[in-house]
Write a structure and sequence with these properties.
Blueprint: E1 5-18, H1 22-31, E2 36-47, E3 50-60, E4 70-81, H2 88-117, H3 131-139
Antiparallel strand pairs: 1-4, 2-3, 3-4
Helix pairs in contact: 2-3
Length: about 140
């Protein structure tokens, strides 16, 4: 099956690592295994057939915890969609499923490097994010 889109560029739009002080670092270092990965995707049309797809990853603790660090990255993909794509559902699948599945290995590598470089080495995500499955769940 031929793809009905092409990623013509990807870049880090925004990246943040916030650990406010040394006591927080020590606390977070010991509790980071309890942090949760959250993903959001949004998009906007740039011009005819070109879409900006932003995949946002946040790695954070529960809101009520006072001593916490915050890690976030917005990874932007510039996508050229085939002019034959006119169905809204097909466009939605490209944005929410196909593009994120394709860019996720690079995004995960960059994000894990951010965590390591922020003083939290050795973090691994237990399972890979399956955007196809998430898309199917959303459709139901």
């Amino acid at each position: 099956m031929t793809e009905n889109y092409k990623i013509i560029g990807s870049f880090i739009k925004d990246m943040s690592s916030e650990t406010p002080d040394a006591p927080t670092y020590i606390f977070v270092r010991d509790k980071i295994s309890k942090y949760r990965l959250n993903i959001d995707i949004n998009s906007r049309a740039v011009k005819d057939g070109i879409i900006e797809v932003n995949t946002i990853i946040k790695f954070s603790d529960q809101p009520e915890i006072l001593k916490k660090a915050h890690f976030e990255i917005t990874y932007t993909s510039i996508v050229k969609v085939d002019e034959k794509v006119s169905d809204k559902k097909e466009m939605e699948k490209i944005i929410l499923c196909d593009v994120p599945n394709k860019i996720y290995p690079d995004l995960e590598r960059i994000f894990l490097n951010l965590l390591t470089d922020s003083g939290y080495p050795g973090i691994k995500f237990e399972k890979k994010v399956d955007f196809t499955e998430l898309y199917k769940q959303r459709a139901n």
